[in-house]
Write a structure and sequence with these properties.
Layout (H helix, E strand, L loop, with lengths): L1 H8 L4 H30 L4 H24 L11 H18 L11 H11 L2 H24 L12 H52 L9 H16 L5 E8 L2 H8 L1 H18 L5 E6 L2 E7 L2 H18 L8 E7 L6 H17 L5 E3 L2
Helix pairs in contact: 1-2, 2-3, 2-7, 3-4, 4-5, 4-6, 5-7, 9-10, 10-11
Length: 367
């Protein structure tokens, strides 16, 4: 229903249509309240002159709001919906209705719930405070006017309790659908915010993963490997956990790329990282140092590091590529208590090039 009316009254601009939808909901509440007040003329609790003035005010507010929103004139403001102005007019209409409704004045207050429900969408606390003060002060003024000028109150006689109850129910029939629409929109906003929060959390986790992981192989990247190495150096220097480091370089990797293509080369790197990781203990680590070069850290002595290299050599030969054997050269160095990470890497690098000069497909231990 609302979408069809908006198609007739609305705009192709999506944001403008959303603002006009809110205007239409408010207009429906005005229309329902006006209908009940008009029936009050025949029931004896509403004066025709007072009702005409109230209807003129409401009609002017509705028409002016539509003209401002539909023309796009309000889009120059921070709040294109001119929410505070619209809701302020609604507060004044409610207080005015309270003044002229006589014995039915309590039901005239019901639309105030819709007004503050609308305000929950976009208003800041200062604006909500302003509306609250306006609602209370205008209602106090209405009470004072009813007391000081009782002849202004256009009610004749008393209203039977059943009729009062019926009018209260009818006013709720006017107000509750609008509240239901507002509640539905708030629920949709909460769901959207929840989905956005979940997507943001996932994106942050992915950013954190990419910050420490190599995008191709999924193992630690150079930066993360360097941080882990610095930590292990600190522990080893205090004689807490001795460790060995191996720099591993895939043999003739350029030839693999040239003969099989870079896609096949990437597959070899991923398979190589998987093979190495499968042979490590939970306390060991591996990271991609750059290109086809990897760094393996294993806690223990050189004998344990050598056995690990043998296991990795066997796993790489059998599992790294289906049709082409893959081999690597490695240089192993055990950390010395007075040695920095760079010095340890330099010794392992020298051992790696010794392994390459010795014919590749082997590992050498640094002096």
């Amino acid at each position: 229903m609302f979408s069809k009316l908006i198609d007739i009254l609305g705009s192709s601009n999506a944001k403008r249509r959303a603002r006009l939808t809110q205007w239409l909901i408010a207009s429906m509440v005005y229309l329902g309240a006006a209908t009940l007040l008009i029936t009050g003329v025949g029931q004896g609790w509403m004066n025709t002159t007072a009702l005409s003035l109230w209807l003129g005010f409401v009609f002017a507010v509705v028409v002016i709001s539509y003209a401002l929103l539909r023309s796009g004139w309000t889009e120059r403001f921070r709040d294109p919906s001119v929410t505070v102005w619209q809701l302020s007019m609604g507060v004044l209409a409610v207080s005015w209705g309270y003044l002229i409704c006589g014995p039915m004045r309590t039901s005239a207050l019901f639309p105030i719930m819709v007004i503050f429900a609308f305000g929950a969408f976009t208003l800041r606390w200062r604006q909500i405070t302003f509306l609250t003060v306006l609602a209370l002060s205008s209602l106090i003024v209405a009470v004072i006017l009813r007391t000081l000028f009782p002849h202004w109150v256009p009610a004749r006689g008393e209203v039977p309790p059943m009729r009062l109850d019926i009018n209260n129910v009818l006013m709720l029939v006017v107000v509750l659908p609008a509240l239901a629409v507002v509640a539905t929109r708030l629920s949709g906003l909460r769901r959207k915010l929840s989905e956005q929060r979940a997507a943001l959390t996932q994106a942050l986790l992915e950013v954190e993963r990419l910050a420490v992981s190599d995008e191709l192989t999924g193992i630690a990247n150079r930066r993360s490997t360097r941080l882990m190495l610095e930590r292990d150096v600190s522990l080893s220097s205090r004689a807490i956990t001795p460790f060995c480091l191996a720099i591993v370089d895939i043999d003739h990797f350029k030839r693999i790329n040239d003969e099989l293509g870079h896609g096949a080369g990437d597959d070899v790197l991923k398979a190589f990282a998987h093979c190495v990781t499968a042979q490590l203990r939970s306390s060991d680590s591996v990271g991609r140092w750059g290109g086809e070069e990897f760094v393996v850290v294993t806690h223990g002595n050189l004998e344990g590091a050598a056995r690990l290299m043998e296991r990795i050599r066997h796993a790489v030969r059998t599992d790294c590529h289906a049709t082409r054997p893959v081999a690597f050269s490695a240089g192993i160095a055990q950390h010395r208590p007075d040695e920095s990470a760079d010095e340890l890497l330099a010794r392992a690098d020298i051992a790696l090039y010794e392994a390459k000069r010795a014919g590749r497909d082997r590992y050498m231990v640094a002096a």
